[in-house]
Structure prediction request, 268 residues.
Amino acid sequence: MKFTILTLFPEMFAPLDCSILKRGRDEGLLVFDLVNFRDFALSRHKNVDDTPYGGGGGMVLKPEPLYAALAALPPPAGARRVALLTPQGALFSQSRAAALAAYDELVLICGHYEGFDERIRALADEEISIGDYVLTGGEPAALVVIDAVARLTPGVLGQEDAARTDSHAGGFLEHPHYTRPPLFAGQRVPEVLLSGDHAAIERWRRKESLRRTFLRRPDLVPEAVWREGDYAILEELAAEEETVRLCRPLWAGAAPPARRRKGGDRHG
Ligand code: ADE
Prediction:
């Protein structure tokens, strides 16, 4: 997958040269193209911003350098998506990351300074915010988007399915993890994880994943994807956790799979 980043501060993208993103690039799975759109400024002094019409403080990004930078990109090798990073965009999420990972090229436009000329919005297919706070520019937000999308690109993570089972995949938070030693700082690893009983371990993980989500992020539950067997786990959790009991309307729809009737007539 190719990421093209239009920015005034390419040096802020040093993290692309580290860890898993670097390995993905070294293996030819990821391509990063950093474009400094100051290079496309029309004036002799390469100005990219100007004072706002109507007065008021601050500077506003001019539209021409970004239009020229986008027009000068090499033709896309496949499906290209252009996204503008702005606190006014749609809130970024795991499901948006998965949707963007389906493209061959993602172009990220990073605004900076107080704001940008409204006509810059017309360049983008979508606008993305990474949270309800204001950053000094779109660069840290672009890094967040690149990281979340790149790791969903096939082959980038060592284990192919690691991305699927982790927090937010399927909409639930991930279960707790433990490694050696079995007892540390007075805290013991749950017995079931040492048992070697894979079915029991799977069930424990699912239960703790549901528990975590209900206790920490009940807002995720309505969009999460239920699995067969969840209903029985939820009944157990309801006996253990008041929050799960109180949230019963959220999970009452996680019905147990209909039992097959004798004679095979499932519709009668
Ligand atoms: N630029 C400034 N703040 C931002 C945010 N929260 N998300 C995306 N881009 C931004």
Summary: The two ends are 50 Å apart (CA to CA).
